[in-house]
Prior knowledge:
This protein is of the alpha/beta class. It is built from two helices and twelve strands. The protein has a domain at 144-266: Leucine-rich repeat, LRR (right-handed beta-alpha superhelix) (Alpha-Beta Horseshoe).
Amino acid sequence: MKCQNCGSFIRDDSKFCNYCGQKVNIRPQRQETPGVSTRPRDEDFDVAVTIQKETEADIAEQSKKSAWVILAMIAAGAIFAGISILIYSSAKANQHVIVTEPSTEATTEAATTVVSSETESLPEETEAPSTEEPTESATPVNWELVDTGTATYQVFDDWVAVITYLTSEPIIVMPDEFQGKPIKIIADGVFENNGTIMYIQLPAHLTALNNRCFANCKNLREIVMPETLKQLGADVFKDTTGFRIVSKEGTFAQRLAEQMELEWVEGDTLTVPVIE
């Protein structure tokens, strides 16, 4: 090699120039493998850029999917909440026990009819019961609640509905009228879960038994139904079995007994003595 100071040729392993005495600065040389270049290739750079772009695209795609999943979960939650509110509102509506006598053109908003639109499945010749007591005028319906201590009545101009009936007697003969007006409807669940009733005679002018009226009356043995009865709400006798129906022949009550496979007895009064 040459001395960097004087240009004289000296040995490769010399530390000082033999001619001028200058210290020799030895620069390490990079050893390269013959035929192998250490310089980055353009192809490698392109591959790296492509991988980065694909990675960014995958991240963007995953973000979109996550966003859709979140939106779907929010929508599902909103739908579930809406259905829950609808079911709850419907259940609350069915708990009303006040009845109203609507007109032919309009109904009063002061109360809700107790006679359900759902009916017990009956023989084909039985007319589908109306859900309302008709009136001849379109004037607002007037009514009042009267509590006698034993029962609560909703009194209209010319008919009455039983709203509650509290008794622990095993034998019941319900009154046919109240304040000189016929009793036509027994409201929702009036005798539901009553475990003491064994024999009951319904009012002579009764036209409708509303929802769950005699549900879960485990000890009921006999019920006298008038020939005027034409309407049943939902689950009127749910979980109440083994009783007999007393009614006149060819009535709605007789067909009901046949359909429910209950004992039927012709008559219009209880078959057991009633103590006045």
